[in-house]
Amino acid sequence: MAVCALGALAVFGYSQGWIGGSGSPAGTSIASSAPGSEPAAGDDPIRPLFDGRRSGVEVQGTGVVSRILPDDDQGSRHQKFLLTTPGGVSILIAHNIDIAPRLDGLAVGDRVGFLGDYEWSDKGGTVHWTHHDPSGQHQNGWLSWKGRTFS
Question: Where is the composition biased (Low complexity) (predicted)?
Fold first, then answer.
C-alpha cells in the first residue's frame, strides 16, 4: 500500500467494532489537509479524540518523533516511540515487530505517518494495530517513514 501524502489525515470512527468482518468500520468521517502540505493543528485527528476521551477509534495521521523508547519484549514484541501530533498531543506508537518490520534508524525529529487504533489515556493515548492482520479480521494498519510503508 502506498502512502500518497503524509499531509492527508483521516479519522474513521466506529462504535461497536467491525461490521460483518468486512474490514470496514461503521460510520466514517474524514478530515483532510491539502496533499503534500504540512498538517495544521486544526487538522490533527488525535486532538478531538484526546479531548473527548475516546478509545477504540481507527485513526490516520502524522506526528514528529519526540522520544524513542525501549522495545517491549513481553509477549508480542513492540517497537515503541512517542510522536507529537500537529495539535500538540503526545501519543505512544506501539508497533508489533513480530508481524511488521521495525523502523530501523528511527530518530527524534523524524516525521512518521500512521494508521492504527487509538486508545485514550491521560498522557495522550496509544496507537496500535499499525500492521497488517494475519488473520484478516481487522483493518490493516501501517506506519509510513522516509518514503517507506511498514505493515
Answer: 29-42
Helix (H, G, I), strand (E, B) or coil at 98: coil
Spatial separation of the C-alpha atoms in residues 84 and 90, rounded to whole Å:
5
Pairing of strands 57-72, 111-119: antiparallel
CB 85 within 8 A of CB 72: no
Beta strand 90-96 with 126-128 is parallel
Q: Is the Cβ–Cβ distance between 117 and 142 less than 8 Å?
A: no
Output the pTM of the full model.
0.74
Cα 82 from Cα 89, distance rounded (Å): 10
Query: What are the extents of the domains in the chain?
Result: 10-150
- Helix (H) or strand (E) holding 120, with range, is none
| pLDDT tens digit sequence for 29-62 | 223 333 344 455 568 999 999 999 999 999 999 9
CATH superfamily membership of 10-150:
Nucleic acid-binding proteins (2.40.50.140)
Q: Characterise 51 by phi-psi region: left (phi > 0), alpha (psi -120 to 50), beta (else).
A: alpha
